[in-house]
Amino acid sequence: MRRTTVFGLLGVCALLAGCLGRTQEGDQARNADAKEITLTIVANAVAGGKNARGANWLQNWVIPRFTEQQKAKGVTATIRFEQNGAGDEDFKTKVALDLKTGGGGDIIEVDGIWLGELAQAGQIKPLGDVVGNTDWDGWNQIPKAVQGLGEFEGRRYGVPMGTDGRVLFFNKKLFAQAGLPVDWQPRSWRDVLDAGAKLKALPGVTPIQLNAGTAMGEATTMQGVLPLLAGTGRPIHENGKWQGDSEQVKDVLELYREVYGGGLGDPVLQQEAKGRDRSFALFSENRIGILLESDYFWRSVVEPKNGVAKMPDRDTAVGWALVPARQPGAGVGGQDFVSMSGGGVRVVNPNTRYPRQAWEFLQFLNSAEAVKESLAGAAQLTQRQDVNDEVLAGDPMLTFVAEEVLPITRYRPGLADYPKVSAALQQATADVVAGKSPDEAAKAYRAALVKAVGEGNVG
């Protein structure tokens, strides 16, 4: 009797295992042959409001063309666009709640920095687990580093929607006055400081703008601390730990001390509520020599016609250079130069009724034709190298970012604790600007970090 029961249980277990295996495969292929489908795409964009260009593209170009494409295959497709115009955090909360309760759109646009948090919560799953085979010729057009925007812990969760890159911008006119080369490319932090020392001799000029303090917010972290940390060879998060008061963090804070304690930067500007906007204006007025920023600065800030701090002679007066590591070869992965990037990612909802069709829609959204159309004639970096080669051909700065920066860039860790870590890093730079030593600021940073994420999560 006991023997029969044991073999019976083994048989049931084997049957269940087989069923589970087929269930997973069946989930990926469910409704694969459907002749009528409904897909919803969710984005934080609204016609006439937030991210209006993206909303118009989805509503007026993507949906009609994808519907036509499906009709030609004998499929009647209904594509719905769920528009949102909420603040980023409110949108994130909505997306997480929808996913948690088994709802939400089939395709969802999320900030890349949310990816890890959603993945750890089990609210999104690796793309292959949801849709099956993810072979696509488009991957060959997205640089490996850019693909990292849609990855977490070595697994691919989605397709990047676009990205940016950080560089050092410099004023060629001021460089010429200071006897510096107008084709400047520093190869170390010391080279940057030495250029700053020469610019210091020019009256009324702030040599270096390196975002610092809490008033600058995330700009301090993304246009300051994180690229500099990458230049020391250690990212802020590795092997499951947040970097504490390490030698690398102290090296970054020491650079801040040399800039702001050495009269190369303006400490008051870092404390102003709109200090970053003020720095933009000062650069356009030829009063800042070197500024670390994203390509947004070029295409939207000092853009001659529509920029927020228009610079009529931008194309001849503004230079750009790669952000050097602390010294050659000292950057992450042994790199000589480093960058940080941000951007959005499109993911497929694990709860979709049409996983294969959702993957097909995702490929369409990221096709060369669709990506080019999404720009509406603007010169802007995209996730696709072939599109960049075409649309950026007349813009040497953005071409530089596409060809030289994107292949070496890194992304913020998409973890729930990141905002608290970022705030602690901002405060550490504020402490140095206010006169604390790098050691003191690093010690206080570690204490804040431990309080925020727990001792066991600090390396």
Automatic annotation (TrEMBL):
Pfam families: SBP_bac_1. PROSITE patterns: PROKAR_LIPOPROTEIN. PANTHER family: ARABINOSE-BINDING PROTEIN-RELATED, DIACETYLCHITOBIOSE BINDING PROTEIN DASA. This is Carbohydrate ABC transporter substrate-binding protein, CUT1 family. The lineage of its organism: Bacteria, Bacillati, Actinomycetota, Actinomycetes, Pseudonocardiales.
